[in-house]
Amino acid sequence: MDWGMKNRLAQVIPSDGKCFFMPIDHGYFQGPTRCLEKPGETIRPLLPYYDALFVSRGVLRSAIDPSNTKPIILRVSGGTSMVGKDLAHEGLTTSIEEIIRLNASAVGISVFVGSEYEHQTLMNLSKLVNECEAYGIPVMSVTAVGKELEKRDARYLGLACRICAELGARIVKTYWCDKDFDKVVAGCPVPVVIAGGPQCETEKEVLEFVYDGMQKGAIGINLGRNVWQSKYPVAMAKALQAIVHKDANVKKALEVFNEIKNVEYH
């Protein structure tokens, strides 16, 4: 691995080998998602707690202060929407020149294993890896499932993660599953980061699946809605940071949440 690749990976994954990514790229297929109507304002109080921001180029340019941000993981796939026929029908949206121009520390792309567009999205990943490796830019592959959430079992996720790693992804973002998640991680030769998925019912539920996933080998999390759609986003961010970077268990993380929540509320 050359110096540039090592340096960029070190920007998004701190020296303890763990990471907390904050995705605000939902608008690329959902439009103005609740609490992301003004993304710059949404993430401003959360800046101290996450390690990198996962964002599209349009929002990066229009809403993120270039003098006060964290490393950028640039969303570079898209071309579909919630009202379209199939969320899996994605293409590459951003050139390597644009990735370099925006000074991205890494890039992120979705693949849809098992969908009608499996081949297309896997070839999108392969093309992106070919281009980014030449410039020392790490690629994070996202094992997306579109609207078919029932696919999120260990067998499917293990298959998708391994294929992404085989095609050259340096990091794989995937969903947590409550059975055999350790096998998903063990079968993937590159670091695994947990996706958030739909917003959970309670804060404890979020902390529990994050703690379990970290205990079973994930190096970190990529959570958005369960943070910035929370009634207490700063408290939620700090509690998650405690699990990821301070080895807190769920009980300790809840204590952190409640302590900050009381301050945030008042």
- Name the CATH superfamily assignment: Aldolase class I
Largest β sheet strand count, sense and barrel closure: 8 strands, parallel, barrel
Extended strand count = 10
Integer count of domains: 1
Q: In percent, how helical is the residue content?
A: 40-55%
Quickly give the structural class: alpha/beta
Oligomeric state: single chain
Portion in strands: 15-25%
List the topology elements.
Elements: H1 3-12, E1 19-23, H2 27-30, H3 39-43, E2 52-56, H4 57-63, E3 72-75, E4 77-78, E5 91-92, H5 96-101, E6 106-111, H6 118-133, E7 139-143, H7 154-166, E8 171-175, H8 181-186, E9 192-195, H9 203-215, E10 220-222, H10 225-228, H11 233-246, H12 250-265
Parallel strand pairs: 1-2, 1-10, 2-3, 3-6, 6-7, 7-8, 8-9, 9-10
Antiparallel strand pairs: 4-5
Architecture overview:
With 266 residues, this protein is of the alpha/beta class. It has one domain: TIM Barrel (Alpha-Beta Barrel), CATH 3.20.20. It contains twelve helices and ten strands. Strands 1-2-3-6-7-8-9-10 form an eight-stranded parallel beta barrel, surrounded by six helices. A two-stranded antiparallel ribbon has the order 4-5. β2, α4 and β3 form a beta-alpha-beta unit. α9 runs parallel beside α11 and α11 runs antiparallel to α12. It is globular, with a radius of gyration of 17 Å. The model has no long low-confidence stretch (mean pLDDT 94).
